[in-house]
Amino acid sequence: MLQPHESRFNLLPDPASTTAHEGGPANGRTTAARPRGDDREVMMTSSCALRVGVVGCGYWGSKHVRVLQSLDDVSQVVLVDGRTDRVNALVRGFPGARSFADLPSALPEVDAVVIATPPTTHTPLALAAIAAGKHVLVEKPLATTASDARQLVAAAREAGVTLMVGHTFEHNAAVDKLRSLVQQRELGDVYNIDTARLNLGLYQSDVNVIFDLAPHDISIINRVLGTTPTYVHAWGACHANSRHEDVAYLRLFYPDLAVSANIHVSWLDPCKVRRVTVVGSRKMAVYDDLAVDERIRVFDKGVTPPVDDQDLTQPPMTYRHGDITVPHLDFEEPLMVQDRRFLNSIHTGERPLTSGENGLAVVEVLEALQISMREGRPVHLSELAEPRPPRPTRRRRPVAHKTTLVGSA
Fold first, then answer.
1. Which of 149, 213, 295, 347 is the most exposed place for a label (fewest CB within 10 A)?
2. Model pLDDT for residues 342-383, shown as the tens digit of each residue
3. What is the 3-state secondary structure (H, E, C) of the chain?
C-alpha cells in the first residue's frame, strides 16, 4: 500500500541523457530490452545482474529495496526519492545503495525501475522511464485512467521493454491454490465471490479507497475466475474525508460464468480484514491472508434443494456440514516472487503474469466503478472503449451523520 505524500519528482527526463541512452542503459551496458517487433528473437543480457532503481522510498518502496537487495539478479539497487530522510534511513541499512533526488538523474544509471509513488504520478514517471529504454514495474494501480494505462502499454510495446504491474496477490501461493480449486471444479459451480479489505486507514492524498484497496481484490477475482467482468455497479461514501470516498461496496458481474462478486473496501473500520470467500455448489473456500498458518480453508458445506419444490411438506433446503480441510501451501513472500519474476521477464523477454495488459484490465474496472458511483447506475466495460462525452455530476446529498453519499446502493 502506498503512503500519502510521497516525494515529488521532476517528471521530465533530461533530454541529453534520454537521447544518449534511448533503448539501452548508460555506460555501454547491454540490456535485455526486446527489439521492436513481436516476431524478432529475444536479446539476452551479456551480464545477468541488473541495476534497478526504486522510485519512491516510502513504506512500500522500502520493501522493494529490501527484496531487490537480496536477489542475485540485481547488481545494484538505486534509490530515487527527493526526501533525504527516507534515503538516508535506507542507506544506513543498505550501505551499497546509490541515491538520486529525481528520476531523470537516475535513468542513465539503471536498467530497470520500480515505481512506488502515488497513483497519479505513475503515468508520467513510467513514460519517462520507458522513453529512456528502461524496463518498468509500476505498483498498483497501473494508472488512474484507462486511457493512461493504454498509453503505457502501447509505449512499452513500441520501446520493446517489459512493463509489469504490482498486483502482488497474483504472486501469492494462496491465490494460486484458490484458482486451482475453482478451475479444477473442486468447489463445484461457483455461485458467488465475496471479499472484504478493511482497515483503519491509511488515507491517501490523491485517490479514494477504491483505487487504493480494490485493485487487490479485482486482480484476485480476475485471476481466480480466469476472466474479466462485463459490467459493474458501485456505491461509495465520504465520511471522515470530504474529498475522497473512504467506504465503498462494489459489485462485479461475470455473466458468461453466471458469477457475481461483491467487494467491500474501507479505510474506516476498527478491524483489519483481508478475506476472500468463494461459494460453490459442492464446497466453499475462504482465503484469509491474515491467518498465517491457515490461509486457505475448504469447507465441505452446502445446501441441496428438494427434489419436488412444489411439495410443501418437505423442508425448503437440506444442509450439509462436512469436514474443514487446510491445504498445504509452499508459501514464499509474494513481493519476493513478484520482483524475481520481473527480473526473469527482462532476461527472457517473456510476458509477465501481471503484465501491462493485466494492469489495464484492472484499471478499466476501476474507471467503470468510478463512473457507476458518480452516476448511480451499472456500467458496462464496453463503454470505456470510446471517449465518453461529459455528463453532469450528481449533486452530493448530505445525510444525518454528515457523510456524503455518491451513487446508489
1. 347
2. 999 999 999 999 999 999 999 999 999 999 999 999 999 999
3. CCCCCCCCCCCCCCHHHHHHCCCCCCCCCCCCCCCCCCCCCCCCCCCCCEEEEEECCCHHHHHHHHHHHCCCCEEEEEEECCCHHHHHHHHHHCCCCEEECCHHHHHHHCCEEEECCCHHHHHHHHHHHHHCCCEEEEECCCCCCHHHHHHHHHHHHHHCCCEEEECHHHHCHHHHHHHHHHHCCCCCCEEEEEEEEEEECCCCCCCCHHHHHHHHHHHHHHHHHCCCCCEEEEEEEECCCCCCCCEEEEEEEEHHHCEEEEEEEECEEEEEEEEEEEEECCCEEEEECCCCCCCEEEEEEEEECCCCCCCCCCCCCEEEEEEEECCCCCCCCHHHHHHHHHHHHHHHCCCCCCEHHHHHHHHHHHHHHHHHHHHCCCEEHHHHCCCCCCCCCCCCEECCCCCEEEECC
